[in-house]
C-alpha cells in the first residue's frame, strides 16, 4: 500500500476541493466484510490527474460523473482519476471492506461475556481508506453524511445525532467541515446513559457486559464532562462547534482515546471493572478534558499537514491538565473535587506520570523537535512515528512554560484569535505563532524557534555558595545556575531550612521563600539575604521543561528529608531529578531504592507513590539491577510495600493500600503470601480480590512457576470476560516451561488470529526477568519474526510487537549487538524500526547503568 507524501497532498489540494461525502454502510453482510458505498462531490480547479484512496476486500464498481470506470485499475490503495476537467464532479464507489481485529479501520469485537458484537471506527491517521473511499488528507475538509444499516436491536452512533429511520436503518446528521480522519461510527447493542447539557444531548456508551460499572461512575464522568465543557466556554470565544457530545468506551482500542468530533471513543478499561485509585480516576478525568480540548484544537481548527501534529496533541495535553484543575472546585490543599471524588493536584500527576515520557523520548536517537521541519515529515508513514512523548508531554511542558512567560491572558487572547481566523479550516505552526504574537509585545517567534524547533533536554544545575564579599546587610548566600542547553527558562526557586518538628517523617523542612528567576540572566550570581538554606530547589512548581541538578549540600538534604518537604509538586521535581540521575548513571540505583524505602512510608501524594514504585520496580529492579543484585532490590520493594500495607490497615487510605498491594504482588519472590491471598480471596485486612488483583497474582505465580494451566483455566472459567481472556493469555505466556514459551511465540508470530489486545497480553507475559536461560533462544528469533509480522499485520501490531514483545530483559552486550545489526534490515517497516531504535537505546542505557561504578 502506498503512503501519501506531503508533496502529493499539496498537489492534490491545489487541484481539487471536496464538498460532501454521502456514505452508506451495511453492517449486516457477514462477519468478515461489510458493504461500503461512497458518493463524493468535489470540484476540480483545473484540468489534471489525481487519485482517490481505498483499501477494499473487493472493489465492485466505481464511476465518475455517471461514467463507469474499470475496478481493475486500482493500484494498491489508489484509484487514478485521470483527465479531470475544471468544474464539479461526483465519484461513486461501491466496495466490500474487511473488518479489522487490530483496532484500525472498522474494528469488530465479539464480547466473550455474552456473545454480543460491537463495531467502531478508528480512522486516524490514514485508515478511513479501510472504511470508505476518500481523498484522505487533513486539509481536504468536507461535510460527511452517513447512513448505516445495522442488525436489529443495535444502536448506531456517529459524529452527529443519529436517528433510526427504519428497521435497522440509521441516518447520522451531516457534519460541519471536518477532516477525513475524524469521521466516526460505532454500532452495537450499546448500554447508554444519556442526558442534556447546555441545550445539547450528552451520552455515555459501553458494551452491555460493562453496564453496571458504567452506571456506577456515570454521575462522576458526566459531572467532569459538564464542568470541563463549561470551563472551555469560559476560556474560548468560539462555542462548541458540533450538535452533540457522545463518549463511547469501546473494546480493544489502541490509544487512550480519540477526539472524533461529537463521538469521542475511549478504551473501555476506563470503565473500571475492579478497584482503582483516585489517581487513576483522575487520569480518566484528564483524558476526558484532553479529548474535549480537541473539539477546538484539532477538530474546529485542524493541522494542514502532519508535521504540525503537536498543535493538536501538545495543546490538548496542556489543556487537559490545566482545565481539569480549573473546572473542579478546590476542597483541600493541592486537591480538587469532581462530584464525590477527591483528586490530587493534576500537575503532580503530570510531573511523575507524563513528563518522564517526554524526557526519555527527547534523549533517544529518534528525538525530534516538538515542531519538526516539514521536510522531516515527508509522508504519512513518517508522521505516525511522531506520536510520542515529545509531541505530547514535552510539547505540553513547552506550552506551560510559554504561559508562565507570556501570561495566561495573552495566551488565551492569541488562542481565540487563532480559532476565529481558522475555524472549520486548517492552520500551520506559522499561523499559530502569528496569532499568539498578535496578542503580546513579546517575541513569540523567537521563543518558538528556541523551544519548538530544537531537540534535547536542557540541564539546569544549581551552584549555591557564600558570596565572595559580604553584603552590608549582613549574612547572605548566592545562587548561580549553569544551563547546559540553549533555551530560555522562567522558573521559580524555593528554599527551605531545617526545623524541629518531626511529625512529617524523617526530619522536617520549613519553607523560607520562593522567587522567580530568568535563565539565562545577566550572568551574575543572585545574592539573597540570610544564611545559606538547607535546600535550594530549582524549578519549584515544575513550570519548565529541563533536567534539574541540585547542589551537593541540597541533594544530601533532599535525600534525607524528601518526605518532609511540604509541597507535593516540589517533591515531584526532586523525585524526577533522582530518576534522571539514575538513568544518566549519576546516582546509584540502590540510593534511589533507599530513598524510596525511607520516604514513601510517609508520602501523602498517591501519584508520587505510584510513580516512584513504578520506576523502582519496572526499571531499577527489573532492568538496572544486575541478576545478582535483583533479589536485594525486590526485597527492598516487598519490605516497603509491606510497610505501606501495615500503614493502611485502618482503611483510611484505600488507594495507597491498593497501590502497595499491587506492587507487593509484582515484586514477590516467594509464592506463599500470594497463594494465601488467592485461596482466601482477600488480602488480610482487605481489599477483597477483584478480577484485576486475581489475574495480577496469578500472573506473578505463573512467572514464579507456582501455578499451572489447570489453575489458569479455572480462573478463566470464573471470569470469561475479555479482560479474563487477556489475563489468561498473559499467565500462559509467563509460565516458565519450554512448551508454554513455544505456544506463546507461535500465537504471536506464527498465527495471525490474535487481536491487538490478546497479542499485547501474550507479549507482556512472555518476557520475564529471571527466566533468562529459558528465553535466550528467542532473543535472536525476535528480530526476523517481528519484521515479518509487521509487514503482514500493519502498524498497530508492529508497534505492539516493538513495545511489548521486545526482549527487554535480555540486558547484555550480545543482545544489543544482535538488535543493532537487525536495524540494518531493509525489510523493517517504519513503525517497527522506530520502536526498535528506542528499545535498543533503553537497552544501551540499562547496560551503562549496570556497569557504572559509584
Write a structural description.
The protein is built from 27 helices and 31 strands. It has 854 residues and is α+β, with helices and mostly antiparallel strands. Helix 2 crosses helix 4, helix 3 packs across helix 4 (309-327) and helix 9 (408-422) crosses helix 10. It is globular, with a radius of gyration of 28 Å. The model is unreliable at 331-342 (pLDDT under 50).
What key attributes describe this structure?
854 residues; alpha+beta; 8-stranded mixed beta sheet; 31 strands; globular
Q: Quickly count the helices.
A: 27
Q: What is the overall silhouette?
A: globular
Structural class: alpha+beta
How are strands sequenced across the largest beta sheet?
A: 5-4-7-2-1-10-13-12
Q: Could you estimate the helical fraction of the residues in percent?
A: 40-55%
Compute the CA-based radius of gyration: 28 Å
Number of strands: 31
Outline the secondary-structure elements.
Blueprint: H1 6-15, E1 16-26, E2 33-44, E3 48-53, E4 58-64, E5 67-69, E6 78-84, E7 87-98, E8 105-110, E9 117-122, E10 143-149, E11 155-158, E12 162-166, E13 169-172, E14 185-188, E15 191-197, E16 200-206, H2 211-235, E17 245-250, E18 257-258, E19 263-267, H3 278-294, E20 301-303, H4 309-327, E21 329-332, E22 335-338, E23 341-344, H5 346-353, H6 355-362, H7 380-384, H8 390-406, H9 408-422, E24 425-427, H10 429-437, H11 444-452, E25 459-465, E26 476-484, E27 489-498, E28 509-519, E29 526-529, E30 535-537, E31 547-549, H12 552-561, H13 568-583, H14 589-599, H15 606-624, H16 630-647, H17 654-667, H18 672-680, H19 691-703, H20 709-718, H21 722-734, H22 738-750, H23 756-766, H24 772-793, H25 795-804, H26 813-822, H27 830-851
Parallel strand pairs: 1-10, 16-17, 17-19, 20-24, 25-31
Antiparallel strand pairs: 1-2, 2-7, 3-6, 4-5, 4-7, 8-9, 9-14, 10-13, 11-14, 12-13, 15-16, 18-19, 21-22, 22-23, 25-26, 26-29, 27-28, 27-30
Helix pairs in contact: 2-3, 2-4, 3-4, 4-8, 5-13, 5-15, 6-8, 8-9, 9-10, 14-15, 14-16, 15-16, 15-17, 16-17, 19-21, 20-21, 21-22, 21-23, 22-23, 22-24, 23-25, 24-25, 24-26, 25-27, 26-27
Amino acid at each position: 500500500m502506498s503512503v501519501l507524501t506531503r508533496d502529493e497532498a499539496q498537489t492534490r489540494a491545489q487541484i481539487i476541493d471536496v464538498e460532501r461525502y454521502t456514505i452508506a454502510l451495511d453492517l449486516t453482510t457477514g462477519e468478515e466484510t461489510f458493504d461500503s458505498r461512497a458518493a463524493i462531490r468535489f470540484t476540480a480547479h483545473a484540468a489534471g490527474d489525481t487519485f482517490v484512496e481505498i483499501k477494499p476486500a473487493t472493489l465492485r464498481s466505481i464511476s465518475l460523473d455517471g461514467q463507469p470506470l474499470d475496478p481493475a485499475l486500482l493500484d494498491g490503495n489508489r484509484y487514478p482519476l485521470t483527465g479531470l476537467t475544471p468544474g464539479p464532479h461526483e465519484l461513486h464507489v461501491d466496495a466490500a471492506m474487511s473488518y479489522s481485529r487490530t483496532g484500525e479501520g472498522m474494528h469488530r469485537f465479539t464480547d466473550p461475556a455474552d456473545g454480543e458484537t460491537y463495531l467502531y471506527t478508528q480512522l486516524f491517521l490514514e485508515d478511513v481508506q479501510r472504511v470508505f473511499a476518500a481523498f484522505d488528507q487533513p486539509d481536504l475538509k468536507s461535510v460527511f453524511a452517513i447512513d448505516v444499516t445495522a442488525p436489529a436491536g443495535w444502536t448506531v452512533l456517529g459524529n452527529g445525532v443519529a436517528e433510526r429511520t427504519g428497521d435497522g436503518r440509521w441516518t447520522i446528521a451531516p457534519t460541519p467541515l471536518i477532516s477525513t480522519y475524524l469521521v466516526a461510527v460505532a454500532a452495537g447493542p450499546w448500554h447508554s446513559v444519556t442526558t442534556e447539557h447546555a441545550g445539547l444531548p450528552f451520552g455515555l456508551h459501553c458494551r452491555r457486559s460493562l453496564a453496571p460499572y458504567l452506571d456506577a461512575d456515570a454521575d462522576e464522568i458526566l459531572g467532569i464532562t459538564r464542568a470541563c465543557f463549561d470551563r472551555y466556554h469560559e476560556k474560548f470565544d468560539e462555542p462548541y462547534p458540533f450538535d452533540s457530545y457522545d463518549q463511547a468506551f469501546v473494546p480493544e482500542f489502541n490509544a487512550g482515546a480519540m477526539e472524533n468530533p461529537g463521538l469521542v471513543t475511549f478504551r473501555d478499561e476506563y470503565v473500571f471493572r475492579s478497584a482503582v485509585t483516585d489517581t487513576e480516576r483522575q487520569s480518566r478525568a484528564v483524558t476526558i478534558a484532553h479529548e474535549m480540548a480537541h473539539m477546538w484544537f484539532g477538530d474546529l481548527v485542524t493541522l494542514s499537514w502532519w508535521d504540525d501534529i503537536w498543535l493538536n496533541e501538545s495543546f490538548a495535553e496542556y489543556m487537559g491538565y490545566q482545565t481539569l484543575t480549573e473546572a473542579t472546585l478546590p476542597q483541600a490543599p493541592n486537591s480538587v473535587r469532581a462530584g464525590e471524588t477527591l483528586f490530587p493536584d493534576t500537575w503532580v500527576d503530570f510531573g511523575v506520570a507524563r513528563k518522564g515520557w517526554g524526557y526519555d523520548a527527547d534523549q533517544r536517537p529518534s528525538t525530534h523537535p516538538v515542531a519538526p521541519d516539514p521536510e522531516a515529515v515527508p509522508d504519512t508513514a513518517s508522521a505516525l512515528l511522531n506520536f510520542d512523548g515529545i509531541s505530547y508531554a514535552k510539547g505540553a511542558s513547552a506550552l506551560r512554560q510559554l504561559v508562565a512567560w507570556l501570561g495566561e491572558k495573552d495566551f488565551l487572547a492569541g488562542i481565540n484569535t487563532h480559532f476565529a481566523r481558522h475555524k472549520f479550516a486548517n492552520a500551520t505552526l506559522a499561523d499559530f505563532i502569528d496569532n499568539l504574537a498578535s496578542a503580546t509585545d513579546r517575541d513569540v517567534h523567537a521563543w518558538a524557534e528556541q523551544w519548538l524547533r530544537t531537540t534535547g533536554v536542557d540541564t539546569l544545575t544549581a551552584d549555591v555558595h557564600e558570596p565572595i564579599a559580604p553584603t552590608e546587610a549582613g549574612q547572605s548566600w548566592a545562587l548561580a545556575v549553569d544551563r547546559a542547553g540553549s533555551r530560555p527558562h522562567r522558573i521559580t526557586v524555593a528554599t527551605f531550612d531545617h526545623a524541629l518538628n518531626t511529625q512529617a517523617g524523617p526530619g522536617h523542612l520549613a519553607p523560607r521563600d520562593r522567587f522567580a528567576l530568568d535563565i539565562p540572566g545577566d550572568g551574575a550570581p543572585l545574592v539573597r539575604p540570610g544564611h545559606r538554606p538547607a535546600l535550594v530547589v530549582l524549578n519549584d512548581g515544575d513550570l519548565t521543561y529541563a533536567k534539574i541538578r541540585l547542589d551537593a549540600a541540597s541533594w544530601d538534604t533532599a535525600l534525607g528529608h524528601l518526605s518532609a518537604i511540604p509541597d507535593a509538586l516540589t517533591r515531584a521535581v526532586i523525585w524526577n531529578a533522582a530518576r534522571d540521575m539514575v538513568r544518566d548513571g549519576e546516582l546509584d540505583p540502590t540510593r534511589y531504592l533507599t530513598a524510596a524505602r525511607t520516604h514513601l512510608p510517609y508520602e501523602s501524594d498517591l501519584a508520587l507513590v505510584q510513580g516512584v514504585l513504578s520506576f523502582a520496580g519496572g526499571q531499577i529492579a527489573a532492568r538496572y539491577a544486575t541478576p545478582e543484585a535483583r533479589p536485594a532490590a525486590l526485597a527492598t520493594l516487598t519490605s516497603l510495600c509491606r510497610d505501606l500495607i501495615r500503614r493502611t490497615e485502618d482503611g483510611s487510605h484505600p488507594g495507597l493500600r491498593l497501590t502497595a498491594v499491587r506492587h507487593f504482588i509484582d515484586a514477590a519472590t516467594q509464592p506463599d503470601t500470594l497463594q494465601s491471598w488467592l485461596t482466601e480471596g482477600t488480602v488480610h485486612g482487605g481489599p477483597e480480590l477483584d478480577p484485576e488483583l486475581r489475574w495480577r497474582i496469578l500472573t506473578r505465580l505463573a512467572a514464579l512457576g507456582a501455578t499451572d494451566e489447570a489453575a489458569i483455566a479455572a480462573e478463566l472459567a470464573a471470569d470469561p470476560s475479555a479482560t479474563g481472556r487477556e489475563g489468561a493469555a498473559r499467565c500462559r505466556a509467563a509460565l516458565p516451561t519450554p512448551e508454554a514459551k513455544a505456544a506463546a511465540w507461535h500465537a504471536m508470530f506464527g498465527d495471525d488470529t490474535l487481536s491487538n489486545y490478546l497479542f499485547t497480553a501474550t507479549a507482556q507475559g512472555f518476557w520475564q526477568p529471571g527466566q533468562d536461560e529459558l528465553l535466550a533462544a528467542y532473543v535472536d528469533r525476535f528480530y526476523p519474526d517481528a519484521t515479518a509480522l509487521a509487514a503482514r499485520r500493519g502498524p498497530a501490531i508492529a508497534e505492539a510487537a516493538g513495545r511489548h514483545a521486545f526482549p527487554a530483559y535480555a540486558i547484555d552486550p550480545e543482545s544489543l549487538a544482535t538488535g543493532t545489526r537487525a536495524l540494518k534490515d531493509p525489510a523493517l517497516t517504519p513503525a517497527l524500526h522506530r520502536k526498535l531504535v528506542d528499545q535498543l537505546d533503553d537497552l544501551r542505557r540499562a547496560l551503562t547503568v549496570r556497569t557504572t561504578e559509584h
